[in-house]
Amino acid sequence: MIRRFSESIVAFLDRRGALKHSSKEVYVYGFDIAIYTYLT
Length: 40
Known about the structure:
The chain is mainly alpha-helical. The chain has two helices and no strands. The protein has helices spanning about 1-15, 25-40.
């Protein structure tokens, strides 16, 4: 569930052109950890 939410955030940011790095998996991983940390 958190993974899908992270992927949605990254897809949104990618559509807006806010991502500078081409590897979206790095962003998904970062958001995944950030959301998990925030929720716990």
